[in-house]
């Protein structure tokens, strides 16, 4: 399968160039630096994903998004913006975005979200396993093995561990986990993250794997893996 093509609509040329360099191993990148050019390029059927800033010259990203949706264009759109309030996120999703990531951001998280959207659209081969240290997750079968022994993880326990293992050696905030697993508009409180983290650690403890997940006080969590690291097949 050829590499998917993504369009980055971002007026900060330095940022756009940096993202293109970072993503080039996974995708082919096209760039647009204003809203009108971005809209024209977004309608190209060869574009598999759009990474879209909101504050653009010409017309803003939300207008661009509304316009291409009115044309019947259903290309996945990831909004990448400094606008970080709940109201801003609601406007983005109401305009037709598929995901929303606020600046500043970790490039690795952007890559993860890009891959996720492309897989969902059938434009990228799906990985079958994610592993880190003694832990291996089978994403197709939804099963977990630690040091070769099966561990029964339910629902979001599995999703939480997958999210952590896909972002090794990175600090992931409680807010990021909450948005990823429950959704920013969920009626559940942020404290649910701590509950699931506690349950996950308890299930990993018999295998001495709970220590891989470190708490960064008042911030979030980080997974520390062994020298072999975390890999995705």
Question: What's the topology here?
Answer:
Blueprint lengths: L4 E5 L3 H11 L4 E5 L2 H8 L6 E4 L8 H10 L6 E5 L4 H10 L3 E4 L4 H14 L8 E4 L2 E4 L4 E4 L2 E3 L3 H11 L6 E2 H8 L10 H13 L8 E4 L3 E4 L6 E3 L1
Parallel strand pairs: 1-2, 1-3, 3-4, 4-5
Antiparallel strand pairs: 6-7, 6-13, 7-8, 8-9, 10-12, 11-12
Helix pairs in contact: 2-3, 6-8
Describe this structure in words.
With 233 residues, the chain is α/β, with parallel strands linked by helices. 36% of the residues lie in helices and 22% in strands. It has eight helices and 13 strands. The strands form three sheets. The protein has a five-stranded parallel sheet with strand order 2-1-3-4-5, sandwiched between helices. Strand 1 (5-9), helix 1 (13-23) and strand 2 (28-32) form a beta-alpha-beta unit. Helix 2 runs parallel beside helix 3. The chain starts with a strand and ends with a strand.
Features:
single chain, 5-stranded parallel β-sheet, 8 helices, 13 strands, 36% helix, elongated, disordered C terminus
């Amino acid at each position: 399968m050829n590499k998917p093509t993504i369009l980055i609509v971002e007026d900060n040329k330095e940022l756009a160039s940096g993202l293109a360099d970072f993503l080039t191993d996974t995708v082919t990148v096209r760039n647009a630096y204003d809203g009108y050019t971005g809209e024209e390029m977004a309608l190209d059927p060869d574009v598999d994903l759009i990474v879209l800033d909101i504050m653009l010259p010409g017309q803003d990203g939300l207008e661009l998004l509304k316009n291409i949706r009115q044309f019947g264009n259903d290309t996945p759109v990831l909004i990448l913006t400094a606008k970080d309030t709940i109201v801003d996120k609601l406007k983005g999703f109401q305009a037709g975005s598929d995901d929303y990531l606020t600046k500043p951001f970790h490039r690795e998280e952007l890559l993860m979200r890009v891959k996720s959207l492309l897989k969902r659209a059938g434009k990228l081969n799906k990985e079958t396993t994610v592993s880190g240290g003694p832990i291996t997750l089978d994403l197709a079968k939804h099963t977990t093995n630690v040091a070769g022994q099966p561990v029964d993880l339910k629902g979001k326990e599995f999703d939480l561990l997958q999210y952590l293992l896909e972002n090794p050696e990175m600090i992931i905030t409680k807010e990021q986990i909450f948005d990823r697993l429950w959704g920013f508009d969920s009626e559940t409180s942020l404290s649910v993250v701590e509950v699931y983290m506690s349950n996950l650690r308890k299930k990993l403890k018999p295998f001495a794997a709970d220590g891989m997940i470190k708490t960064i006080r008042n911030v979030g969590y980080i997974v520390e893996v062994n020298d072999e690291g975390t890999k995705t097949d």
